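User: I'm new to structure prediction. If I give you an amino acid sequence, what do you actually give back? Let's try with this one:
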Amino acid sequence: MKSRAETLSRQAKEQLAAITPSSRREALAEFSAIVQAAGSVNLSGGEMTVSVVTDNEYMPALLARLSLTVMFAPPRVTFAKHITLTFERGKELLVLLGIFTDGAGGFRRVDGIAEGLVRRDSDKRAYARGAFLGSGFLSAGKNNHMEMSFSGEKLRGDVAALFASADIPARQGVRNGKYTVYFKSKEKICDALTFMGASKAALDLQEEMVVSSLEKRATAQQNCDVANIDRAISASAKQIEAINALDRATGLETLDERLRTTALLRLAYPEANMSELAETLGVSKSCVKHRLEKLAALAAHYTDKKE
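Assistant: Good question. You get back a string of structure tokens that encode the predicted 3D arrangement of the chain. For your 307 residues, that looks like this:
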């Protein structure tokens, strides 16, 4: 039986592989990232081929679709211990994907993501998606970890910058000679999955966060002091009253994602204290306190305006 983490990682890759790029530019970005992350160059008899070796069962259909979108011959697929997808005319493919250039300076590798390949937000999402499909893995539970690995330091920095452009800061490291981009908190992993397009996997991870929080809270409540519980309930009641007033005044759907998530979590779990809310959201207690105070201030603003 597969673990929960394996199921979630598989689900995320299945969702990402099913996304159809809306333009040739997006297809080129995703295709390039996959080859950068999982591809290798082979020379035989003076001919160059490019191979992608993977255990991702969705990759053959995805690469065939991307190939047709960018008007390149689909790969030859072989199944053994792993799935191997081989592209003929490898030199032409590498130039098309911006991984190599072939000009006055000769045939040489591009350092990082090719200039102009990811100009638009949709291109950035497509490239990040391809990078995760090519070399990513996801683990959730006691050890929350989402990681992608690359052969070059510049490429690692460029991929991290794609996520940073969406206000999702990534950590950078080195593992087994590879340069890695990774996320540790469940909140950032959810944000990264949503950015790439795996929103269902992100929602499932958020559900797991809530379940985990409930289990921890059940244990913690046995040792809670009655006075602390009363204070938490009193504060929670005021927060819920403010959130409900804000919902009546303008609707919670008008809030940004972070405030809306905090508001909905507070409504769903009125007995949770600041530490438990912070742990569920993957942020600090001060951050939760700031968000709840902002919700209260917004509620007061709309109430005063109405009067």
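You can read the tokens as a compact description of the fold. Here is one thing that stands out. Residues 226-249 form the longest helix (24 residues).
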